[in-house]
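Q: Sequence in, structure out?
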Amino acid sequence: MALCHRVEPRSRHGPDPETQIDHRLALERVSRRLDDLPEALRTALVLTAVTGLSYQEAAASLNITVKALEGRIARARKRLSVP
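A: Exactly. Output:
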């Protein structure tokens, strides 16, 4: 009796190396663009978009109003959207 079993290829987990490089390069570009923002705009954007604070929490941590925070975030996004 011959014992035979089928070997299944391992499933790949995560992106392929080329995609990983593309992601890393994109992240580096975003990081450079963030670094070019004035500190007040960068901080407002990072606290909400990256750190995940609510607008109320971010405004309180910066000791500004939510309306002022919204303005900073809008200006940061506008600057980042221009190539």
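Helices lie at 17-36, 39-50, 55-62, 66-81.
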